[in-house]
Amino acid sequence: MDNKSQKFSEPSGEGRFPLEGVRVVECGVFHAGPGACAILGDLGAEVIKVETPGKGDPIRGLKRVGIIPFEIAGNRSLFCEGANRNKKSVTINLKTQKGRHLLYRLVEKADVFLTNLRPKAIEKLLIDYETIGGINPKIVYCSVSAFGDRGSDRNRGGFDYQGQARAGIMFSLGGAGGSPAVSQFGLVDQTTAIMASHQILAALFMRERTGVGQEIRTSILGSAMFLNYFNILLAQLGGFEVPAHEREKDNPLRNFYRCRDGRWLMITLTPSEKYWPSLCEALGDLDLASDGRYDTDDKRISQAGEVVGRLDALFAKKTFDEWFEIFGHYDLVCAPVNRPLDLAGDSQVIANGYLSDFIHPTLGKVKVPDYPGAFSRCSTGIKSASPELGEHTVEVLQGLCGLERLEIDKLREEGVI
What pTM does this model have? Predict the structure, then answer.
């Protein structure tokens, strides 16, 4: 793993993490909730994931979604790797009284508790805020739901696609003709994880200031709407739906073009009046700059099909690398339109550690998405891969609960762990 503190010339706290000493207990499944704890783990928190003995988080068995294969070496799931990095797995049967008491002992020594189980399951397992907060009044209790904790749909389940659908994202991504489109894979689940981790950090900060713990709540729907903030804002304040982007109808200077080698370049040159002459000069067509048919933003947009066609022909004359260098010389804002597989070869991605080398227990040396922020006096990043089911049960119960090995063996025989 590349240490993010290496971005700075003389990091004074290398090896330390910002959330060192923070302990998180998680009773969560899939990604929208557990992904938040993985992020806290990137920041150095100790995350203890409580799973059902013999079964574990259902995400462990997610080896295929539709036509998309998720299985990797070691009978592991790709999705599980992303949701459960940096964690310790402890198996406890929360349907038993002894199992709940073990969880409560962990809660006593925790700073954060997170669950994304449905309300009925939370109540049945006695892991609601009133119970957990009663055991540890200073704890930050985070619950993640599909559609929010109020309203007629509070008990309904939901996944990433439901967030994209209900928050208006599918129509915001949709193509011509008003047909919706979905983004693969986990766009809203990860947004919800980021939102939950953000709230947890804010609540921890407040606790440091006031000594007061609290319950915080977030949802897939709310997080998806926050991700779709400006499209929703325009709809609510402007009273109109933002139209889908169409290359031949949209602003030619806020568009993407195919280069000679087949790669695409995305440009955003606003205000267009300022950049139009520089763009034409960079493209080597001064006649286009002086053409009265296209000399204003309104004219270019009203005749977008013609302008895009002219620019298509110009971009087709050089490779992406050639255009990227030329645009840099003219300080014209642009970027490659990368496929996810292209990112490992993007020098800017690698230079900033957004993809880092990681030694995976079954895959060996791989590159993985890393925590995208940097601190000058501490480190961030992936510390460990997703644990095997129950891998840390003995370690945690001995270390935090003070149980002897014979007690642990007895609990296992009784089906408690």
Answer: 0.94
For residue range 240-268, what is the model confidence (pLDDT) as tens digits?
988 888 899 999 999 999 999 999 999 99
Ramachandran sector of residue 229 (left: φ over 0; alpha: ψ -120 to 50; beta: rest): alpha
Concatenated DSSP letters for 29-57? -TTTTHHHHHHHHHTT-EEEEEE-TTT--
What are the pLDDT digits (tens) for 350-378?
999 999 999 999 999 999 999 999 999 99
Q: Which homologous superfamily does the CATH classification assign to the domain defined by 4-231+372-413?
A: Crotonobetainyl-coa:carnitine coa-transferase; domain 1 (3.40.50.10540)
Instruction: List phi, psi (to 5°) of 19.
Output: -105, 25
Closest CA relative to residue 39, chosen from 189, 157, 148: 189
pLDDT per position as a tens digit, 183-201: 988 999 999 999 999 999 9
Nearest partner of 260 among 340, 320, 174, judged by Cα? 320
Phi, psi of 378 (to 5 degrees): -160, 175
Exposure string over 17-34, b if 16+ CB within 10 A, otherwise e: bbbeebbbbbbbbbbbbb
CA dihedral 174, 345, 78, 220 (to 10 degrees): -40
Locate CATH 3.40.50.10540 in the chain. Answer: 4-231+372-413
117: number of Cβ within 10 Å: 20
pLDDT over threshold 60, residue 13: no
Question: Is the four-CA dihedral 279, 282, 288, 292 of positive or negative sign?
Answer: positive
Residue 39, token pair as written in the block: 């992020």
